[in-house]
Each structure stands twice: as structure tokens, then as C-alpha cells.
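Let's do one together. I've listed all components of the complex below, 625 residues spread over two lines.
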Amino acid sequence: MTDLTHLLTTRRIVVCLGSGGVGKTTLSASLGLWGALNGRRTAIVTIDPAQRLADCLGLHDFSAPSVTLSRDAFLSQNLNPCASLTIFRVDQQHAWDALVDQYVPTPEGRVRIRTNRFYQGLSQTFAGSHDYIALNQLAQLIATNTYDLIVVDTPPAKHAIDFLRTPFQLQRLLQQPLSQRFLHPAVQRGWATFSSANRLGTALLTKLEHATGLSTLGDIAAFFSTMAHMIEDLSIRLTQVSGILSSKETAFVLVTTLNTASTAETQKISVDLNALGVVPQAVVVNRVTSTRETVTESAMSRTRIEHSSKTLRGARLNKQQQQWLVENFVGYQKRLGAEIRHLEALQAQFRSPTPLLTIPLWPSGPMDLGSLARLQQYLF
Amino acid sequence: MATTGQAALEEYLSRILPFAPLRTLMLQSQLYQYFVLAAPGLKELMAMGKVWYEAQQHDRRTTFPRWDALIIDMPASGHSLQYLRMPQAASDTFDTGEVRRKAAQVVQLFRDPEQSAFHIVSLPEELPVEETAEIVAQIENELHFPLGALFINQRRTTPCDCATLDRLYPARDATSADRSLVDHMLAVARYEARLTQAQTAYVNQLNLLAPPAIATIALPYCFAESLGLPEVQTLSYCIQSALHP
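Okay, and this is what the predicted structure of the assembly comes out as:
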């Protein structure tokens, strides 16, 4: 049993993390597909606001919050699923509205919240509120016990770490006496509420009033006071998810490519994860040009390469083509040399038992279930 | 210059609160910590506000604008859209005060085709092409920002296609001591030719995605262990050649 096989059969949640463009979404899709093909009821959840995951699985018209792949979709690619594969995307507006429906008992109260401009910004466009709602959806998904395996596709590294920190931020916010005042209905009447608290608070809020506009702060206060129970419950749920994410139920898989920026960012993510008490369980190195064996074989001098290319003189190649054959091969060798150095740096950082798996660069890239399944030969 | 939302916010505060002790108290206060860590959208809004601020700067001595051009390197497309939406979202949410005024100014700057252009950088691969379609539509139809050029990065070109390379195999010298090296060289060339061929369909799709008035500029794949000045110069020359043939 390979290490990833062990992870995907023993862990309930697998989180794929990495910098932008390294292939997290493709890997998430491939791991999720492996789960379904091997009898694990699998959900793939994307936290990324881009629609990459749906595209990767061929779901170009993906307007519903979740889609379960049909058996025909598997059979058309000669794949035989032993369990279901469902893809979830975070529908920010829908999820916030559902929370309002759940927590505001009266129709009038719901209308008041939905017409509140702070709520409209929060639920539709404010960056960052996506993280809260994504984590809440993950919490709900875990609570249903419907899935044996949940694969989480995260946004690029910096934002992914923000996403993991979200529960701590909300907890921290709610533990503060000052934020408790946001939940106080009196705040809707104005910031005078704070004046009795302390002089510094008053000075700061005067500046804030100037910066934002009083009526907006009233909107914020109205939102917080009406949704106080929701915010407290959300905090509890996110704290629970946070506990699950840092427990043995969850495995973190780092995805990288062999270039300076990606490997440096991977090393940084690992440090940031450690600070959150999380250790990556596997590292997947994507888009590797070739393997160590071919580097050794190709470690030849330029003179020898040029000489060898001349043995093709009988062929109908013009001078430009002949020159390109040499330059291309020399460039290829350089790439391999650089890749090996990056690979060795990663191997030095992620020692056994953390598996380090490599996936070669595919000229056409994985575009359907069949090619995602073929990708698994490098992982399992 | 490198900026983050938090750094931009602190810089903004240093302008509205020039008295350092008060600013230090504010930075250490719980209220500030709440706004920085938990308030959705604030960091993104401040980062965009920083762009506007730099665009307004003038040289005190000459009174000319401080910068002739500001080039903003944005995050990956999904998150770029969150940054770009924030000024309008803030302008819609706040009906009075500095935030609304500043946010509206940022939107005005970004929407002015005389002052701003939004360049899209893509790759000739399946998922980047899909994302490019999404971001072009959002920038044009939702944000109403002026599109600049569409850059197709890491475009590979080979003077030989796979069929040409396949015809070379019988031309190898069977007696050569370097036969295996030649085989390897051809295999590598064929691999590159396949990559080039695979990219062609995506390049065509990207060309179709760009509105007629938008230039599409292909940038070559440059191998370098770390991107340095020579590679940047190569890319810069390609852009110049494409814009001024």
C-alpha cells in the first residue's frame, strides 16, 4: 500500500495546498476520483472562487451548489465507480441567505437583513467573507456523515493559509469586549455607546465615523445585533472544523512544481502550517520535465551534442532546424539540472516518512475523467 | 514596491493619524486588530486604495506626476476579481464619508480608459483558457474596466513538427557511438514539438476570446532557473516588437 493510498483510505479529509498554477485543482480532482473508484463516498470541495474544479471535471455548466457525477460520465471513460463522487462549490450568496433564513425567525427581520447594505456587501462581494462561508459549508458537510472522503481544493497558498486561520480570527474577534459591543442593539443608535467605555475608544471611533460614515456603522451594528446568535454559532462551528483540520482525521498534501518561486513558497507554507500545529503528510511535485535517470544519461557536453547532431546530416533538415535540435537539448539539460536541485532541496526538507511523489509534465494536460484516472499511476 | 492590504492600511493610518503615539495605540488596539484580521474586504480595499494614492502622487520639486506608469502585479485571477470588486462594493455599501469618497475615486480611476488598462496574462492550457474567458467577461461586463492586451505566456515554438522529427529516425547513423544520445535528442525534440502542437489549439481559443480591439501578444517560454534581467529583457523586447512591429 503506497502512502497516498493509506492517507486516502484512513483519513476523512484531505486538503491540497500550494502556490498558484501548480496543479492543486487537477490533483484534488484526481484524488477525489480515486476515492470514488475505490469505494469511498467522496466529496470534492473547492474553496477557490475561480471555477477551475468544475472545468477540470468537464462540468462547464455548473450553476448548482453541488453536482454528483452520473454513472454514465464514468462509464463513457471506461471507469467503473464503486461509490459516489460529488463536487461542491461555495455559493457565497446562497449560503449567507440560508444562514439568515435559519437564524432570523420573522419574514420582516429577514427582509431587513437582506436589504441591509453591509449584509449585501458581505454576502455578495466582500473578499474574505468567502472564507467564513466556505469553512461553514465544510463544517456542514462533515456533520452530515454522508462522505467517507472529503477532498478540499484550496486557493493559492497565501489565501489558503488565510482560510485556515479564519476560525482563529473569528474566535479572537468574538472574545474581544469591544466586538461584543457590536452585538449590542444600542450601538445602532450611535457611537455614543462607547463614550462611557474609554476616551481612547471615543477618539478612535470619531476617526472611524469620519472615515466610514455614521449610517453605515449603523448598518453594521444592525447586522451584528440581529445576527448575534448566528455569529456565535458560526464561531462554534468554525472552531470545531478547526479542531478537525488539525486532528488525525485530516491530511494536508502540498502541491508544488520544480521552480524557484514554487519550491520557496512550498517551504514557506510548510513553516506556516507548522505554526498552526499542522504537519504536511505528502508532497506532490507536479509538471516534472523528466526523471533523475534521464538527467544522468543526458549530462553530456555541448561539443558532443553538436557532434552527434551532425550524424543526422543525411536527413533533410535545414540549418535552423539542426541548430534548434542542439539548443533544445542543451536547454532541456539545464532544466533537468535545475529541477534536480529543487527536488533535492524538497527531499531535504520533507524527509521520510513524508512521501514525495512526482508527476511528469503532460503535453496536453488532464482534461477529462479518463486522463485524471491515468494521472493516478504516478500517485498510487 | 511590494504592498499588502495590511501595510497599505497602516500607511493610510499614518497619514490620517500623524501623531505617532496615538497611531501606536491604535495599531495595538483590539478594534484595529478586529478590522485588520476579521473585517471582510478591508485589506483588499486598502491595497486598491494604495494604487489610487500612488497614481495621485506628484514630485514636489517639478510638480510632475511622481510616476509615469504604475504597473500592478495582481494575485491569481479568482482573487484578483475580489480585489477589483472591492472599491465598487465599498462605494455601494457606504453612503457617506471618506470610505465612499475614496472608493468612488478608485473606481473612477480604474474605469477611465485614458488612465487605466487591465492586461490579462494567460497560458495556452485548458484551465487557464477557461479562467481567461471568465475574467475577460467579468472585467468587461461587470466591472466595466478597460481591457488592455491579452498576453499568452510561455508560448513554445519549434521549427520541426512531430512528423518531420519522425522522419529523422531512419536517418540516424547506426554505427555512431552516440546513437543513444541522438535518440535522446530526438525524443526531447519530439516532446517539445508535442507541447507546441498541444498549445496551438489553446492559442487559437485565446485569440478568439480577446475582443477585436484588444491586442494578443505571445510571449516565448524562457527557461531560467530564476527569472533575471536577461529574461525580462527578452520578454520586454517581444512586447515592444508586438506593439510596434
